[in-house]
Design a protein that fits this description.
By secondary structure, the chain is of the alpha/beta class. The protein is built from 14 helices and 13 strands. The chain has a 6-stranded parallel sheet, sandwiched between helices. Strands 10-9-11-12-13 form a 5-stranded parallel sheet, sandwiched between helices. Strands 7-8 form a two-stranded parallel sheet. The longest helix has 32 residues. The chain is elongated, with a radius of gyration of 23 Å.
């Protein structure tokens, strides 16, 4: 096993930390089609901040490439490409299928392909394997084999890292399942859990985030109800949380590449077999509507304070999909910005974690470097970055005009310091 050569396909938030760990013990090739990404990693820096410069330099057997020809002699291929949804909220398997086509061009007999990308149950064997077979001319489970080990990376989380999160593994035959399990077990300190089949492993991954999505949707709906009743949601949750088995979810925007996306993979598969999911889709609709709810509450409060809405200036603090992380994928803060624009409101966005060029490339938003004191009719704390917490209420309030509204979505400040919170 130690003589095996491992290729990691896709060097994003999931692939790079995995490549670094394998590169400590195995000859490892980190592959990505983005040459700019390869160049920065060769220079010893990770712009996603998931891996430190020291960790990159400590992976002595890891090399980075964008030329697929170097993959020809690899024994294991681990695929960690994105699995997004399209504008119709349907699964977009394009990156996965393109990777499968590439693997078909470079794979050799006896190789094992392990998919980590989040998919619906059956996608590995029904969508990816036929592509590899067609391009390579090899036969599945005779000439090459596959496994599935769902990623569990939590971007920005420095406590739960790839090596100390239990890894679910699976394989296309019992023997391959054991090989896949042993491969991961050699680098994952927390250990592994070998699922009975690839479909079980796929399903386990997709329901992890679906479960969180539905739970957050419940809390978001409760927040709407409590808001109409004039009750502070956080105070209710803290009181209920004194019971030992109450789940500590909080209301908020549900974005990112996982929780806001994965449920659509499961519902797509369910609908393809004739079942229409009720609870999952209801939760998605509720969570997708939170941006509109937030802005409606802000506008009502502004009107009560006799602040003219059309032409007002609002500062949105935070753009990334979660705190202390530069990840912009599927951020729901963009829904707030779009809704504010619908009211004819002028929006400035500040985010110390996000590169302005990335915000402009992804969403056409130019970030504000330094908001001017006394400039805004309303301020929305949309993301709970540590930098915003360090500012405190007085400094944040200083951005506002003499009469302004401060809306805290993330409970960054005390209740007494803000005008609105979820």
């Amino acid at each position: 096993m130690k003589d095996s050569k491992v290729a990691i396909i896709g060097l994003g938030y999931v692939g790079l930390p995995l490549a670094v760990e394998f590169g400590k013990q195995y000859q490892t090739l980190g592959f990505d089609i983005n040459q700019k990404r390869i160049d920065e990693l060769k220079a010893g820096h990770d712009s996603t901040l998931e891996v430190s410069d020291e960790e990159l330099s400590g992976s002595q057997h890891l090399q980075y490439h964008s030329d697929e020809k170097v993959l020809n002699d690899c024994d294991f291929f681990i695929v960690t490409v994105p699995t997004p949804i399209d504008k119709h909220k349907m699964p977009d398997l394009t990156p996965l299928k393109k990777s499968s086509e590439m693997l078909g061009r470079v794979i050799k007999p006896g190789a094992i392909v392990i998919f980590e990308s989040t998919v619906y149950p059956g996608a590995t064997e029904e969508d990816c394997v036929p592509v590899i077979e067609s391009v390579s001319g090899l036969t599945f489970n005779k000439d090459f084999f596959v496994g599935y080990s769902p990623e569990r990376i939590n971007p920005g989380d420095k406590e739960h890292r790839v090596t100390n999160i239990l890894k679910v593994t699976s394989g296309s035959t019992p023997e391959i399942a054991e090989k896949v399990d042993q491969l991961y077990k050699s680098v994952i300190v927390a250990g592994t859990y070998k699922a009975s089949s690839i479909k079980v492993a796929e399903a386990a991954k997709v329901i992890e985030n679906t479960q969180r999505d539905v739970n957050i949707a419940l809390i978001n709906e409760l927040s709407v109800i409590f808001n109409k009743l004039g009750i502070d949601t956080l105070e209710v949750l803290e009181a209920a949380g004194t019971k030992w088995n109450f789940l500590p979810f909080r209301p908020g925007l549900v974005g990112g590449h996982c929780i806001g996306v994965d449920p659509y993979y499961l519902t797509h598969k369910a609908q393809s077999i004739g079942y229409h999911p009720e609870m999952i889709l209801a939760g998605r609709r509720l969570n997708d509507g939170m941006g509109e709810f937030v802005v409606s509450q802000l506008v009502k409060k502004m009107l009560k304070e006799r602040i003219h809405v059309k032409g007002a200036k609002v500062l949105v603090m935070g753009l990334t999909f979660k705190e202390n992380c530069p990840d912009l994928r599927n951020t729901k803060v963009i829904d707030i910005i779009a809704e504010l624009n619908e009211y004819g409101i002028d929006v400035d966005v500040v985010d110390p974690w996000c590169a302005s060029k990335d915000a402009e490339a992804e969403y056409g938003i130019q970030l504000t470097d330094t908001p001017k004191d006394g400039s805004y009719d309303a301020i929305i704390i949309a993301v709970g970055h540590n930098q915003f917490k360090a500012l405190g209420a007085e400094a944040i309030r200083a951005y506002g005009k003499e009469s302004h509204v401060l809306y805290d979505l993330k409970y960054v400040l005390d209740k007494s310091d803000v005008d609105l919170r979820l």
